[in-house]
Amino acid sequence: MIPPVLEIGAEVTGYAVGDEVFGAVDVARLGGASAQYAVLDVWTHKPHGMTWAEAGAAGTGIETATRALDLLDVRENTTLLVDGAAGGVGSIVVQLAVARGVRVLGTARPDSHEFLRELGVEPVDYGRGLPARVRAVTAAPVDRALDVAGAGSLGELIELAGTPDSVVTLADFGASAYGVRLSMGRLGGEPDGVHGLTSATALADQGRFHVPVREIYPAHQAAQAHETAAQPPRRGKIVLDMTRTSSVASTELY
Ligand SMILES: NC(=O)c1ccc[n+]([C@@H]2O[C@H](COP(=O)([O-])OP(=O)(O)OC[C@H]3O[C@@H](n4cnc5c(N)ncnc54)[C@H](OP(=O)(O)O)[C@@H]3O)[C@@H](O)[C@H]2O)c1
Predict the structure, then answer these.
(1) Residues near ligand 1 (Cβ within 6 A)
(2) Which of 41, 46, 75, 85 has the fewest CB atoms found within 10 Å of its own CB?
(3) pLDDT, tens digit, 9 for 90 and up, residues 43-64
(4) What would be the CATH architecture of the domain defined by 21-63+192-252?
Protein backbone atom coordinates (compact mmCIF):
# COMPACT_ATOMS: atom_id res chain seq x y z
CA MET A 1 0.00 0.00 0.00
CA ILE A 2 1.21 3.54 -0.77
CA PRO A 3 1.07 5.70 2.37
CA PRO A 4 -0.55 9.10 2.00
CA VAL A 5 0.79 12.16 3.81
CA LEU A 6 2.00 11.04 7.26
CA GLU A 7 3.09 14.36 8.80
CA ILE A 8 2.76 18.03 7.90
CA GLY A 9 5.22 20.87 8.53
CA ALA A 10 4.14 23.72 10.79
CA GLU A 11 3.66 26.28 7.99
CA VAL A 12 1.96 24.00 5.47
CA THR A 13 -1.62 24.94 4.63
CA GLY A 14 -4.20 23.38 2.33
CA TYR A 15 -3.08 19.79 2.95
CA ALA A 16 -3.97 17.27 5.63
CA VAL A 17 -2.59 14.01 6.97
CA GLY A 18 -4.03 11.28 4.77
CA ASP A 19 -3.97 13.32 1.52
CA GLU A 20 -2.47 11.69 -1.57
CA VAL A 21 0.25 13.95 -2.99
CA PHE A 22 3.22 13.79 -5.30
CA GLY A 23 6.19 16.11 -5.77
CA ALA A 24 9.93 16.22 -5.29
CA VAL A 25 12.57 16.48 -2.61
CA ASP A 26 15.11 19.30 -2.65
CA VAL A 27 17.53 17.67 -5.07
CA ALA A 28 20.01 20.56 -4.79
CA ARG A 29 20.32 19.91 -1.05
CA LEU A 30 19.87 16.14 -0.86
CA GLY A 31 21.12 14.81 -4.19
CA GLY A 32 19.50 11.74 -5.75
CA ALA A 33 18.41 8.62 -3.87
CA SER A 34 15.72 5.97 -3.65
CA ALA A 35 13.86 5.84 -0.36
CA GLN A 36 10.76 4.53 1.33
CA TYR A 37 9.79 7.88 2.83
CA ALA A 38 10.48 11.40 1.64
CA VAL A 39 10.18 14.88 3.10
CA LEU A 40 8.85 16.72 0.07
CA ASP A 41 10.13 20.16 -0.83
CA VAL A 42 7.39 20.76 -3.41
CA TRP A 43 4.09 18.92 -3.84
CA THR A 44 0.55 18.98 -5.08
CA HIS A 45 -2.48 16.72 -4.85
CA LYS A 46 -2.17 13.55 -6.93
CA PRO A 47 -4.74 13.39 -9.73
CA HIS A 48 -7.12 10.45 -9.23
CA GLY A 49 -6.33 9.05 -12.66
CA MET A 50 -2.57 9.14 -12.17
CA THR A 51 -1.02 5.86 -11.03
CA TRP A 52 1.52 5.89 -8.19
CA ALA A 53 4.24 4.82 -10.62
CA GLU A 54 3.50 7.88 -12.76
CA ALA A 55 3.26 10.13 -9.71
CA GLY A 56 6.56 8.87 -8.32
CA ALA A 57 8.26 9.68 -11.62
CA ALA A 58 6.52 12.98 -12.27
CA GLY A 59 7.86 15.58 -9.84
CA THR A 60 11.32 16.55 -11.05
CA GLY A 61 10.42 16.00 -14.71
CA ILE A 62 7.50 18.41 -14.53
CA GLU A 63 9.51 21.04 -12.63
CA THR A 64 12.40 20.76 -15.10
CA ALA A 65 10.18 20.86 -18.17
CA THR A 66 8.18 23.85 -16.93
CA ARG A 67 11.34 25.76 -15.98
CA ALA A 68 12.88 25.18 -19.42
CA LEU A 69 9.72 26.20 -21.28
CA ASP A 70 9.44 29.35 -19.12
CA LEU A 71 13.10 30.21 -19.71
CA LEU A 72 12.56 29.94 -23.45
CA ASP A 73 9.32 31.94 -23.11
CA VAL A 74 7.51 29.28 -25.11
CA ARG A 75 4.05 30.60 -26.03
CA GLU A 76 1.03 29.78 -28.14
CA ASN A 77 1.52 29.68 -31.92
CA THR A 78 5.28 29.25 -31.80
CA THR A 79 7.32 26.31 -33.08
CA LEU A 80 9.57 24.49 -30.61
CA LEU A 81 12.21 21.90 -31.46
CA VAL A 82 13.12 19.46 -28.66
CA ASP A 83 16.31 17.44 -29.12
CA GLY A 84 16.01 14.20 -27.15
CA ALA A 85 12.21 14.34 -27.04
CA ALA A 86 11.40 10.70 -26.21
CA GLY A 87 13.34 10.37 -22.94
CA GLY A 88 12.18 10.85 -19.38
CA VAL A 89 12.34 14.64 -19.41
CA GLY A 90 11.68 15.11 -23.13
CA SER A 91 8.41 13.14 -23.06
CA ILE A 92 7.13 15.49 -20.34
CA VAL A 93 8.46 18.69 -22.00
CA VAL A 94 6.72 17.96 -25.27
CA GLN A 95 3.30 17.35 -23.68
CA LEU A 96 3.47 20.53 -21.60
CA ALA A 97 4.54 22.46 -24.71
CA VAL A 98 1.67 21.04 -26.78
CA ALA A 99 -0.68 22.08 -23.96
CA ARG A 100 0.63 25.66 -24.33
CA GLY A 101 -0.60 25.64 -27.93
CA VAL A 102 2.85 25.17 -29.41
CA ARG A 103 3.80 23.28 -32.56
CA VAL A 104 6.39 20.75 -31.33
CA LEU A 105 9.04 19.04 -33.43
CA GLY A 106 11.01 16.42 -31.52
CA THR A 107 14.02 14.28 -32.27
CA ALA A 108 14.26 10.56 -31.59
CA ARG A 109 15.57 7.37 -33.18
CA PRO A 110 13.22 6.13 -35.93
CA ASP A 111 11.61 3.39 -33.84
CA SER A 112 10.54 6.00 -31.27
CA HIS A 113 8.77 8.22 -33.84
CA GLU A 114 5.35 6.63 -33.28
CA PHE A 115 5.76 7.15 -29.53
CA LEU A 116 6.37 10.87 -30.21
CA ARG A 117 3.39 11.14 -32.56
CA GLU A 118 1.16 9.79 -29.78
CA LEU A 119 2.38 12.71 -27.63
CA GLY A 120 1.42 15.24 -30.32
CA VAL A 121 4.94 15.70 -31.68
CA GLU A 122 6.20 15.81 -35.27
CA PRO A 123 9.21 13.46 -35.17
CA VAL A 124 12.61 13.98 -36.76
CA ASP A 125 15.62 11.60 -36.57
CA TYR A 126 18.25 12.67 -34.06
CA GLY A 127 21.97 13.11 -34.86
CA ARG A 128 24.13 15.29 -37.10
CA GLY A 129 22.51 17.03 -40.06
CA LEU A 130 19.42 18.11 -38.10
CA PRO A 131 18.79 21.42 -39.98
CA ALA A 132 18.18 19.65 -43.30
CA ARG A 133 15.89 17.04 -41.74
CA VAL A 134 13.89 19.68 -39.84
CA ARG A 135 13.50 21.80 -42.99
CA ALA A 136 12.22 18.72 -44.80
CA VAL A 137 9.41 18.54 -42.20
CA THR A 138 8.54 22.24 -42.13
CA ALA A 139 9.34 25.39 -44.08
CA ALA A 140 8.20 27.45 -41.07
CA PRO A 141 10.90 28.89 -38.82
CA VAL A 142 11.85 27.17 -35.60
CA ASP A 143 11.25 29.82 -32.91
CA ARG A 144 12.82 28.03 -29.95
CA ALA A 145 14.99 24.95 -29.40
CA LEU A 146 15.51 22.91 -26.24
CA ASP A 147 18.37 20.44 -25.92
CA VAL A 148 17.48 17.64 -23.51
CA ALA A 149 20.00 15.14 -24.85
CA GLY A 150 23.34 16.89 -24.41
CA ALA A 151 24.54 15.15 -27.56
CA GLY A 152 26.50 18.03 -29.09
CA SER A 153 23.74 19.60 -31.19
CA LEU A 154 23.90 23.19 -29.89
CA GLY A 155 25.53 24.61 -33.05
CA GLU A 156 22.81 23.08 -35.22
CA LEU A 157 20.05 24.17 -32.85
CA ILE A 158 21.32 27.78 -33.05
CA GLU A 159 21.39 27.51 -36.84
CA LEU A 160 17.73 26.46 -36.76
CA ALA A 161 16.45 28.87 -34.09
CA GLY A 162 18.50 31.81 -35.36
CA THR A 163 20.20 32.98 -32.17
CA PRO A 164 21.76 31.46 -29.00
CA ASP A 165 19.11 33.29 -26.94
CA SER A 166 16.48 31.09 -28.53
CA VAL A 167 18.18 27.91 -27.34
CA VAL A 168 18.35 26.36 -23.86
CA THR A 169 20.08 23.15 -22.84
CA LEU A 170 19.43 20.94 -19.83
CA ALA A 171 22.35 18.65 -20.44
CA ASP A 172 25.26 20.24 -22.34
CA PHE A 173 27.93 21.58 -19.99
CA GLY A 174 29.76 23.15 -22.94
CA ALA A 175 26.84 25.55 -23.48
CA SER A 176 28.67 28.75 -22.54
CA ALA A 177 31.01 28.34 -25.53
CA TYR A 178 27.92 28.77 -27.74
CA GLY A 179 26.38 31.57 -25.67
CA VAL A 180 23.55 29.17 -24.80
CA ARG A 181 21.93 29.01 -21.35
CA LEU A 182 22.36 25.78 -19.38
CA SER A 183 19.37 25.56 -17.07
CA MET A 184 20.14 24.08 -13.65
CA GLY A 185 17.18 25.42 -11.70
CA ARG A 186 17.78 26.39 -8.10
CA LEU A 187 21.33 25.04 -8.38
CA GLY A 188 21.91 27.78 -10.97
CA GLY A 189 20.00 30.43 -9.01
CA GLU A 190 17.16 30.51 -11.57
CA PRO A 191 13.40 30.72 -11.02
CA ASP A 192 12.07 27.17 -10.63
CA GLY A 193 9.23 25.51 -12.51
CA VAL A 194 7.36 24.31 -9.43
CA HIS A 195 4.12 25.97 -10.55
CA GLY A 196 4.06 23.37 -13.33
CA LEU A 197 3.01 20.68 -10.83
CA THR A 198 -0.41 22.29 -10.45
CA SER A 199 -0.94 22.93 -14.15
CA ALA A 200 0.24 19.42 -15.11
CA THR A 201 -2.19 18.00 -12.56
CA ALA A 202 -5.05 19.94 -14.16
CA LEU A 203 -3.99 18.68 -17.59
CA ALA A 204 -3.84 15.10 -16.28
CA ASP A 205 -7.38 15.45 -14.93
CA GLN A 206 -8.46 16.56 -18.43
CA GLY A 207 -6.69 13.56 -20.02
CA ARG A 208 -4.16 15.86 -21.73
CA PHE A 209 -1.05 14.82 -19.82
CA HIS A 210 0.43 11.57 -18.57
CA VAL A 211 3.84 10.36 -17.47
CA PRO A 212 5.00 7.66 -19.88
CA VAL A 213 6.37 4.80 -17.75
CA ARG A 214 8.55 2.38 -19.69
CA GLU A 215 9.09 -0.19 -16.94
CA ILE A 216 8.60 -0.66 -13.20
CA TYR A 217 11.12 -2.61 -11.12
CA PRO A 218 10.85 -3.78 -7.51
CA ALA A 219 13.35 -2.25 -5.10
CA HIS A 220 15.52 -5.37 -4.95
CA GLN A 221 16.11 -5.09 -8.74
CA ALA A 222 17.48 -1.55 -8.49
CA ALA A 223 20.70 -2.45 -10.30
CA GLN A 224 18.75 -3.90 -13.22
CA ALA A 225 16.56 -0.81 -13.28
CA HIS A 226 19.63 1.39 -13.67
CA GLU A 227 20.99 -0.88 -16.42
CA THR A 228 17.70 -0.68 -18.32
CA ALA A 229 17.60 3.11 -17.87
CA ALA A 230 20.93 3.30 -19.70
CA GLN A 231 19.76 1.16 -22.65
CA PRO A 232 18.15 2.57 -25.80
CA PRO A 233 15.53 3.06 -26.93
CA ARG A 234 14.84 5.29 -23.93
CA ARG A 235 11.19 6.31 -23.87
CA GLY A 236 9.65 7.87 -20.80
CA LYS A 237 10.55 6.87 -17.25
CA ILE A 238 11.91 3.81 -15.46
CA VAL A 239 10.38 3.51 -11.99
CA LEU A 240 11.68 1.78 -8.89
CA ASP A 241 8.73 0.58 -6.81
CA MET A 242 9.69 0.56 -3.14
CA THR A 243 6.36 -1.04 -2.18
CA ARG A 244 7.41 -4.34 -3.72
CA THR A 245 9.87 -5.05 -0.91
CA SER A 246 8.63 -2.72 1.79
CA SER A 247 5.71 -0.41 2.22
CA VAL A 248 6.18 2.89 0.51
CA ALA A 249 5.97 5.02 -2.63
CA SER A 250 7.61 4.79 -6.01
CA THR A 251 10.62 6.95 -6.58
CA GLU A 252 12.17 8.27 -9.72
CA LEU A 253 15.51 7.35 -11.20
CA TYR A 254 17.13 10.20 -12.99
N1 LIG B 1 19.44 20.62 -15.95
C2 LIG B 1 18.44 20.06 -15.28
O3 LIG B 1 17.76 20.67 -14.44
C4 LIG B 1 18.12 18.62 -15.56
C5 LIG B 1 17.02 17.98 -14.94
C6 LIG B 1 16.73 16.66 -15.28
C7 LIG B 1 17.54 15.99 -16.19
N8 LIG B 1 18.62 16.62 -16.73
C9 LIG B 1 19.48 15.98 -17.73
O10 LIG B 1 18.75 15.88 -18.94
C11 LIG B 1 19.25 14.79 -19.70
C12 LIG B 1 18.09 13.93 -20.16
O13 LIG B 1 17.47 13.29 -19.06
P14 LIG B 1 16.38 12.17 -19.33
O15 LIG B 1 15.95 11.69 -17.99
O16 LIG B 1 15.35 12.64 -20.27
O17 LIG B 1 17.29 11.05 -20.04
P18 LIG B 1 16.83 9.78 -20.89
O19 LIG B 1 15.51 9.30 -20.40
O20 LIG B 1 17.99 8.86 -20.91
O21 LIG B 1 16.58 10.37 -22.37
C22 LIG B 1 17.59 10.79 -23.22
C23 LIG B 1 17.03 10.73 -24.64
O24 LIG B 1 18.02 11.25 -25.55
C25 LIG B 1 18.00 10.45 -26.71
N26 LIG B 1 19.25 10.54 -27.45
C27 LIG B 1 20.31 9.68 -27.45
N28 LIG B 1 21.25 10.12 -28.32
C29 LIG B 1 20.79 11.27 -28.86
C30 LIG B 1 21.32 12.17 -29.83
N31 LIG B 1 22.51 12.01 -30.41
N32 LIG B 1 20.56 13.26 -30.14
C33 LIG B 1 19.35 13.47 -29.56
N34 LIG B 1 18.81 12.62 -28.65
C35 LIG B 1 19.53 11.55 -28.30
C36 LIG B 1 17.73 9.05 -26.18
O37 LIG B 1 17.23 8.24 -27.21
P38 LIG B 1 17.66 6.67 -27.38
O39 LIG B 1 17.62 6.07 -26.01
O40 LIG B 1 16.61 6.14 -28.28
O41 LIG B 1 19.02 6.65 -27.99
C42 LIG B 1 16.70 9.31 -25.08
O43 LIG B 1 15.38 9.22 -25.56
C44 LIG B 1 20.24 14.04 -18.79
O45 LIG B 1 21.54 14.46 -19.16
C46 LIG B 1 19.88 14.55 -17.40
O47 LIG B 1 20.99 14.50 -16.52
C48 LIG B 1 18.90 17.93 -16.45
Answers:
(1) 64, 83-84, 86-90, 107, 109, 112, 126-127, 148-151, 170-171, 183-185, 232-234, 254
(2) 75
(3) 999 999 999 999 999 999 999 9
(4) Alpha-Beta Complex (3.90)
